[in-house]
Amino acid sequence: MLEDYRSVWNDMVSLQKTRLAKLRHILGTMGSESVFPKIVGLSASWIKKASAGSLPMTAKAASSIHDATGIDLVWLMGDGPDVPVEADGLTPYGIASY
Fold first, then answer.
1. What pLDDT does 95 receive?
2. CA-based end-to-end distance of the chain
3. How many C-alpha atoms does 85 have within 13 Å on its Cβ side?
4. For residue 71, what are the β-bridge partners?
5. Per residue of the chain (98 residues), what is the pLDDT tens digit?
6. Helical packing angle, 44-52 and 19-27, nearest 10°
7. How much is the pLDDT for 5?
8. Backbone angles phi, psi at 6, to 5 degrees
9. Is 22:84 a contact under the CB 8 Å cutoff?
10. d(CA 37, CA 49)
11. What angle do CA 69, 71, 72 make, to 5 degrees?
C-alpha cells in the first residue's frame, strides 16, 4: 500500500518538473545545487530558477548542459519525447549515460 502511494506521488511530482529538473533528478548527487552548476558552467541561481520554471531554457544554456551531460539538446529545449533521451534522440537517458 505504501509503495503504491509512493509510486503515484512520484508520478505526480515528475509531471510537474521542468525538463532541467528531471535531468538533475536523474543525475542524483551530480545534479545537486552545489555540483551541477560547476559541471555545466552556469550560475547556481540560474539553475535553480530554470529548474523551477521561473526562467526559460535558453539555447546557450541548453548547449552548455548538453555538452556537459550528453542529454539530447532537442529534448532539453522542450521538444521530442517526454522521457529524457541521449544525444542520439532515441536512447533513454540515465545516470549511466553521463
1. 76
2. 34
3. 16
4. 86
5. 444 544 444 454 455 589 999 999 999 999 999 999 999 999 999 999 999 999 999 999 999 999 999 999 999 998 877 888 888 888 888 877 66
6. 120
7. 42
8. -60, -40
9. yes
10. 12
11. 150
**CB–CB of 44/53 below 8 Å?**
no
Burial class (CB in 10 A: 0-12, 13-18, 19+), 80: middle
Residues 87 and 37: their CA atoms lie apart, in Å, by 20
The C-alpha atoms of residue 91 and residue 27 are separated, in whole angstroms, by 16
Name residues whose C-beta falls within 8 Å of residue 64's C-beta, 6 or more positions apart in sequence: 40, 41, 42
Global confidence as pTM: 0.78
Three cell numbers, residue 82: 517526454
